[in-house]
Specification:
heterodimer, A: 153 residues, alpha+beta, Ubiquitin-like (UB roll), DNA polymerase, domain 1, 2 domains, five-stranded mixed β-sheet, 5 strands, globular, B: 737 residues, Aldehyde Oxidoreductase, domain 4, 3 domains, seven-stranded mixed β-sheet, binds FE2/S2 (inorganic) cluster
């Protein structure tokens, strides 16, 4: 079925099965591969994107349900919070294999957009859904704090 | 992970005599500088339309270093980067000897070619593993870079007509003070490539290092934070089909029959093909292929399949451990010492199967063209993958092109002797006659239930204490499956002993006069096993360091002091032990409900000690509050990458110790996704404080050695807090009972 998706500010018209998850439509039909597949059952967060600014697991959401919403992926996220997150991630060299990091950054960006000075508990709550098998968690926490400080400054 | 690989045991002999001699005759990279094909000096970029800006040309300075007319220095990375940081570590070595500026450094994965890019520790075999990437590249890349530097200097000397000895190189600038001449690497590159490389380039005195040991930012950080880094999952080829496979539910089951009708009815599905390990559904997208796979009806022949529960297996292992008699180490007379001892402490430990559970499930892209098989994957054993693909396609290994991609984790999983998922992808591409490129994607369920596992093991420990609390004897008997048996690397098993089974036990450094390690090599278990981040050290580090701790407490001694006494002749072990204890404040009173444990372990030539602090509540629930880690890995090339690998290794080890376990019911894996296999999450990550022992020794690896001390330090901390010891991994809710 043909649907229109607004991804990173651009409208894409795609013809896909109506149960095809947004994750795979983004990757295969829109051509944006920064959003990753890790589990397919909303347990790992590798597929996190923003829908109207809210972090969502795109692996379980049919793309058809996202029609009419603003979809933002790691390639297109550029709010001040997103820029602060990206900068902090780079300054602290958070990444190891990097595979989970698109999802981590999308969750972290959404956190900072709603909470400019998160506590450790806030970070736990916002980031608990994002697995990192390389266990970069200590740096993720530090980078979120650093990005928050940058935004406050 | 591996020792020298004897290629006679591989699928088929792959290397021509000529290439083999090249490798054997190789004393270091200096030999190779300037020996590359002329094609290497061709510009890499296609020439664009006439009005386009001239693309940068690249000059090869041997097989490892290319310098661009745009002043970039590209290091060809012969290893896989799965997060451990070789795309930063190896360029650091090059930049140091080349006197380059860090901002001009780039990294690119080398092609698969064992004649140029073999792992020097493994013979003529390109591979990443055993935490060897830095160690085996250290001298090779220093020589390669020093040679390239000398060629740049010679080119400048010729251009400026001045003596080479008066030329200085610093931060990417070549200069001659007296004449005031100055040039960038880029300006000199093409002339330098024509210079004769020195036979034995002079290497820097380590005291003159300016980059090594300092902080440089990771070269892969940018691409991995804007979505542009390409993993295998992201590779697309024109006309590509995606394949999803129905694997057998039990290890060793085969396809009896299948009905493709329902699968073929799914829109987008184009083909259903039987392969040796299941049935593959090909479609125009992952979603259609997966829906087709899920609709497929397969009848399995299970006569030869593993059908037991893991609990039954564990009972068998327990009985077999009693019979362990393959001698892995024998010092003194353990039987006599145990028989005559005042006090013999005997403990048994059970360690489960574990999944690697990389964040990126296994995947591989294959394109068959006339006389070429081209592969895109996070290749870890490139030479083995080439041989396997050649065997399947009937091509020569040189006709198999491998594009090594960033891997979303490996932890050992991508180094498979039979190249399981690569072979699967090539087989599928061949089954459709190469009609379209194929991208094989394993779902998480495939990855968890159809893969390879850290072997399960059972251990019986005995220690003899005399009346002064000295350890007079130590016996370790274990039952475990061999990783190498039945693989192409079987020839590396010596006297019936797979070193992966006993590593971390037979090398016990403690001064104990009577010491014996006996193995029972378990056969006839259908579960495929593989090296899992730190391999045998994962189980043996746990049991040996947990047991010595318990012996210390039984002997009325401080566990740290006892270790110190027994390590007098091992300065590097002692060094990390003392540093970790000092930084952690060993000996201070922690107050009620808290505990502190220590463990120390050497693996892959690196030494790591960890001190774990826990808080345990009345109900037995606990949190891991802090881990202090000390590491000695020789010269610390990238201290921040070393810290990151210790943090990651500790998190990985903690994840396993807390909850990870793969169990079988009737032969079927019960943990098929992250709902039941539940890795560590951010709220459980302790504060980790890493300290690096200054060292002038040659550098060794850091990808694995952070893992082994964590589990024993944790159970020792829990024992300190509660008096209760953990003999069965994972810890789970055992303390809550
Ligand atoms: S892939 Fe969506 S949460 Fe794991
Ligand atoms: S960086 Fe590898 S999974 Fe997070």
């Amino acid at each position: 079925m043909a649907i229109e998706l607004n991804v990173n500010g651009k409208v894409h018209s795609v013809d896909v099965p109506n149960d095809k998850p947004l994750l795979w439509v983004l990757r295969e039909d829109v051509g944006l591969t920064g959003t990753k597949f890790g589990c397919g059952i909303a347990q790992c967060g590798a597929c996190t994107v923003h829908l109207d600014g809210q972090p969502m697991r795109s692996c379980i959401m049919p793309a058809s349900a996202a029609a009419g919403m603003k979809i933002t992926t790691v390639e297109g996220v550029e709010s001040p919070a997103a820029m602060a997150i990206r900068t902090a991630w780079r300054e602290l060299d958070v990444v190891q294999c990097g595979y989970c990091q698109s999802g981590q950054m999308m969750s972290a960006t959404a956190l900072l957009e709603s909470n400019t000075s998160p506590t450790d508990d806030d970070i736990d709550n916002a980031m608990r859904g994002n697995l990192c098998r390389c266990a970069t968690y200590q740096r993720i926490r530090a980078a979120i704090h650093r990005a928050a400080d940058e935004l406050e400054a | 992970m591996l020792g020298k690989i004897d290629t006679r045991h591989l699928v088929r002999p792959a290397l021509s005599r000529r290439s083999f001699l090249t490798v054997v005759g190789l004393s270091g990279a200096g030999f190779m500088i300037g020996c590359s094909d002329s094609s290497d000096t061709e510009p890499l970029a296609e020439t664009g339309p006439a009005d386009a800006p001239q693309p940068a040309t690249q000059s090869a300075m041997g097989p490892f270093v290319r310098i661009g007319s745009d002043n970039t220095v590209t290091v060809l990375i012969k290893h896989l980067d799965k997060g451990q940081g070789v795309t930063t570590g190896l360029p650091t070595i090059v930049a140091e000897e080349l006197d380059a500026d860090w901002s001009q450094m780039r990294a690119e994965f080398a092609p698969a070619d064992p004649t140029r890019y073999n792992n020097l520790f493994f013979g003529p075999f390109q591979a990443t593993g055993g935490s060897t990437s830095i160690a085996n590249s250290w001298t090779q890349l220093r020589q390669a870079a020093a040679g390239a530097r000398s060629m740049l200097v010679d080119a400048a000397a010729a251009r400026w007509q001045v003596p080479a000895a008066d030329i200085v190189v610093a931060k990417g600038v070549v200069s001659h003070a007296a004449s005031g001449n100055e040039a960038s690497f880029g300006e000199l590159a093409s002339a330098a490539a024509d210079m004769t490389p020195p036979a034995e380039p002079a290497l820097k005195d380590p005291k003159d290092f300016t980059l090594i040991g300092t902080h440089v930012s990771r070269l892969d950080s940018n691409a991995k934070t804007d979505g542009s880094a390409i993993y295998t999952l992201d590779v697309t080829r024109p006309g590509m089909l995606t394949a999803v496979v129905q694997h057998p539910p039990k290890f060793g089951a085969t396809v009896a029959s299948f009905d493709p009708t329902a699968a073929l009815d799914v829109p987008g599905v184009s083909e259903v093909v039987e392969i040796p390990r299941g049935v593959a559904v090909l479609a125009d997208s992952f979603w259609s292929a997966k829906k087709g796979r899920d609709a497929l009806e397969v009848v399995w022949a299970e006569a030869d399949a593993e059908q037991r529960d893991s609990s039954e297996l564990l009972d068998e292992y327990k009985a077999l451990a009693e019979q362990a008699s393959l001698p892995a180490r024998s010092d003194g007379d353990v039987s006599a010492a145990l028989a005559s001892a005042d006090n013999v402490v005997r403990r048994e430990y059970a360690v489960p199967f574990l999944a690697h559970a990389t964040m990126e499930p296994m995947d591989c892209v294959v394109e068959l063209r006339e006389d070429v098989c081209e592969i895109w994957t996070g290749a870890q054993l490139q030479t083995g993958d080439q041989m396997v693909a050649a065997h399947i396609t009937g091509l020569q290994p040189e006709q198999v092109i491998i594009n090594t991609e960033f891997a979303g984790g490996s932890f050992g999983r991508r180094a498979v002797p039979g190249s399981d998922y690569v072979a699967e992808a090539v087989t599928i591409a061949k089954a459709i006659d190469g009609r379209a490129p194929v991208k094989l994607i394993w779902t998480r369920e495939d990855d968890m239930a159809s893969g390879f596992y850290r072997p399960m093991s059972y251990h019986i420990m005995e220690g003899a204490l005399d009346s002064d609390g000295n350890i007079g004897a130590w016996r370790h008997r274990l039952a475990v499956q061999s990783i190498l048996a039945g693989t192409a690397f079987e020839g590396m098993i010596q006297d019936g002993i797979d070193s992966a089974s006993v590593e971390g036990s037979r090398g016990l450094p403690y001064a104990i006069p009577n010491l014996q390690v006996d193995l029972y090599d378990v056969a006839d278990v259908g579960v495929p096993v593989l090296w899992w981040r730190s391999v045998g050290h994962t189980q043996n580090g746990y049991v040996t360091e947990a047991f010595i701790d318990e012996l210390a407490v039984q002997a009325g001694k401080d566990p740290y002091e006892l270790r110190r006494e027994l390590l007098k002749d091992h300065p590097r072990h002692l060094g990390v032990l003392e540093l970790a204890a000092e930084k952690a404040g060993w000996g201070e009173d922690l107050g009620p409900g808290r505990g502190r444990g220590i463990a120390m372990h050497e693996s892959f030539g690196s030494f790591v000690a960890e001190v774990v602090d826990v808080t345990v509540n009345e109900g037995g629930e606990f949190s891991v509050d802090r881990v202090v880690c000390a590491v000695d890995c020789g010269i610390a090339i990238n201290p921040d990458v070393i810290r990151a690998q210790m943090e990651g290794g500790i998190g990985y080890g903690l994840s396993a110790a807390l909850r990870e376990e793969v169990t079988l019911a009737g032969g079927e894996v019960q943990q098929r996704n992250f709902d039941r296999y539940r890795p560590l999450r951010i709220d459980e990550m302790p504060d980790i404080d890493v300290h690096i022992v200054p060292s002038a020794e040659a550098p060794t690896g850091v990808g694995e050695p952070g893992v082994p001390p964590l589990a024993p330090a944790l159970v020792n901390a829990l024992a300190d807090a509660t008096g209760r010891r953990i003999y069965r991994m994972p810890i789970g809710d055992q303390l809550e009972a």
